[in-house]
TrEMBL record:
Signal peptide: 1-19
UniProt cross-references to Gene3D superfamilies, sorted A to Z: Cytidine Deaminase, domain 2
Protein name: Podospora anserina S mat+ genomic DNA chromosome 1, supercontig 6
BP GO terms, sorted: tRNA wobble adenosine to inosine editing
This protein's record includes keyword Signal: yes
SUPFAM superfamilies: Cytidine deaminase-like
Record keyword Signal present: yes
Domain CMP/dCMP-type deaminase: 50-180
Keyword terms, alphabetized: Signal
Organism expressing this protein natively: Podospora anserina (strain S / ATCC MYA-4624 / DSM 980 / FGSC 10383)
PANTHER family per record: CMP_DCMP-TYPE DEAMINASE DOMAIN-CONTAINING PROTEIN, CYTOSINE DEAMINASE FAMILY MEMBER
Length: 243
């Protein structure tokens, strides 16, 4: 796997301190200014939409492996577009593992970020923890559905360079999915005094028509994903070979 150019990565980490002051200690505390309002690029002329859709397709493919119609087919791929590769270089992936791991925090984005951190400090990259933290500044996160507030917060804390999603939270709600109805861009843009900048690029609705098929059958009665069908024993979609 191609390595990062470590030399180009700033390695200084600002430690966020949490101090408690009484009013007597700090009689003239001023509100901490919010980070500058995000001025996201909602288009990215340097990277064609076809490339963006390719990575969303990869997130979908990942979410459907090895089972073609999992209930929670949320997938994420993390890509480096700063290397000499027009298509981008895949760094790590993650799929929703709530049921598999019994861990409610392992949404696709969280799983992918954890996987990236693991490989960065492994022998594959040999990064120090500080280098691992700094490496996220060069990376783009693609998720086939908009990040929930937990994952959006993780995206912002990681300091990703780009954040790209497919189906929106509003669309998931319309399809019957329970969601925390707070847009990811609102979460990402709400940072105050944080060390990294907001992402340079935030794109939503990329490849959403393809991704919607993965989320439209559970509650909304949509067609099953390819390779699955509604059987006599279940209202849900099951792999054809299991029927
Ligand atoms: Zn999430």
């Amino acid at each position: 796997m191609k390595s990062f150019s470590i030399a180009s990565l700033p390695l200084v980490i600002s430690l966020t301190t949490s101090c408690t002051h009484s009013p007597a200690d700090s009689p003239s505390i001023s509100p901490v200014p919010r980070n500058k309002p995000p001025k996201y690029h909602t288009t990215s002329p340097k990277i064609p939409l076809s490339v963006r859709k390719h990575w969303i397709h990869q997130a979908n493919t990942l979410a459907l492996f090895p089972y073609p119609c999992p209930f929670a087919a949320f997938g994420t791929v993390i890509v480096n577009h700063t290397l000499d590769n027009p298509q981008g270089t895949l760094i790590c992936t993650g799929a929703n593992q709530n049921s598999l791991a019994g861990n409610p925090t392992l949404h696709g984005e969280m799983a992918a970020i954890n996987n990236c951190s693991s490989i960065f400090v492994s022998s594959a990259y040999n990064m120090t923890p500080a280098e691992s933290l700094a490496a996220f500044k060069d990376l783009s996160l693609y998720t086939n559905a908009e990040s929930c507030p937990m994952c959006a917060a993780a995206v912002r804390w990681a300091g990703f360079r780009e954040y790209v999603y497919g189906v929106s939270i509003k669309e998931l709600i319309e399809l019957g999915w329970g969601q925390l109805d707070i847009g990811s861009e609102e979460v990402i843009g709400s940072g105050v005094g944080m060390r990294d900048q907001d992402p340079e690029v935030v794109l939503g609705g990329v490849g959403s028509e393809e991704s919607k098929v993965l989320f439209g059958w559970q509650f909304a009665g949509g067609d099953c994903p390819s390779g699955c069908e509604r059987g006599e024993r279940s209202d849900g979609c099951l792999p054809v070979e299991l029927e």
